[in-house]
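Sanity check. The docking grid for acetyl coenzyme *A depends on where the pocket ends up, so I'm generating a full predicted complex first rather than guessing from homology. Inputs follow.
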Amino acid sequence: MTTPNATLQIDGQTIELPTLKGALGPAVIDTRALGNQGYFTYDPGFLSTASCSSSITYIDGDAGLLYYRGYPIEQLAERSDFLETAYLLWNGELPNAGQKQEFDALVSHHSMLHDQMLSLFKGFRRDAHPMAVMVSILGAMAAFYPESSDVADPRQREISMFRLLAKVPTVAAWSYKYNKGEPFIYPRNDQGYAANFLHMLHATPCESYEPSPVLARALDRIFILHADHEQNASTSTVRMAGSSYANPFACIAAGTACLWGPLHGGANESVLAMLAQIGDAARIGEFVNRAKDKTSGFRLMGFGHRIYKNMDPRAAIMRQTCYEVLDELGLHDDPLFKMALKLEQIALEDDYFIKKKLYPNVDFYSGIVLRALGIPTSMFTAIFALARTAGWIAQWNEMIVSPGHKIARPRQLYTGPQRREFAPVNER
Ligand code: ACO
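Predicted complex below; grid placement will be based on this.
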């Protein structure tokens, strides 16, 4: 489909800029030629900038839509499982029965870590945050698989993709076990992806752990909901790092580091910290008022989203999952959950939140589910990173194979001093 050019008039000059129309979503103005004409575009935080073209995930923030390869997230959360979703993200199509079996088997048979990695874990302080450990171990995997640096070789890329997806639950679970002072629990390849992860977290050499199907399914659903989310900060970080053809393990470590921040993947951990800080439903009003007061620097964690301005479709699914898990565990009267629901209700009715289109995001509920699964808050972001690894890998691979690939190199609006002369220290 041809789309009209955009015309930019500046300083008596007329510049014609082509526009491009994707399969869905708004048209984009192709500004690639602007640099040659002496202008850059200015868009801090990339609020209006498409940094790449991609056929993996589509979000319509106003309509509250999230599609992976065209499939609505609700259908995948309801009817698919995480590994099938990962297959879809990587390959563009859902697998048939044989492909699914082969994919699942490959992932489950590569779940062990190189034995020498044990000494890496043991080099950390016991109280190290699991995300600090994950960033390091994922990056260190490049040292164990040096052949993975050949990113031009499709076979090497494929091996790395499987290694990452297969081993990331073990890395995450062992980060936790080390922090807890318990022996590392080896993966069980006869278990599903989420059930095996729960086993590695909760079993000990003295006691096995058999998660109920409802709980394993709830965790699997969290993985599906977090598997990809278009060009968010961490995914863009993975693409940016990978654009130089850096080793894939290093790129995923970079994405993990970005995800760690409280404005991104750290949000569900911050939600529980905030609920603990509120402490009592009677104090919710006080905290809502603080969030509305710009000078306080306080925000209601788990509210608002850069893209979803009406509702986060993942939040609705997670809210439902939250009820299922609390039902299964007989935790209806969990005071924290009750307080969360009260906070949700008050914020949804408040003018400030309505006007600014601040709705609960997926992290608001996922923290409560993870807590009910016996997972400590310090592991929440690690679980997000585990799930997002599927999407990061898909996006990284798509970037590497895209025609006309270029190393990422944003420009800037320089606001520093103009040229000046150096003065020796005794003359300053
Ligand atoms: N509580 C109170 N006020 C808020 C909140 C909040 N949670 N979020 C945004 N606002 C206000 C801002 O103060 C700002 O007000 P202003 O227009 O008067 O200056 C306005 O709403 C817009 O906020 P921005 O930060 O400009 O919005 P942006 O789209 O850049 O940020 C973000 C989105 C970072 C998610 C923000 O809403 C936030 O900090 N939320 C809390 C953290 C959180 O839950 N993060 C999870 C994100 S989801 C994810 O990573 C999966």
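Relevant for the grid: Residues 151 and 359 are 41 Å apart (CA to CA).
Also worth noting: Residues 263-265, 267, 291, 299-306, 356, 358, 361-363 surround acetyl coenzyme *A (CB under 6 Å).
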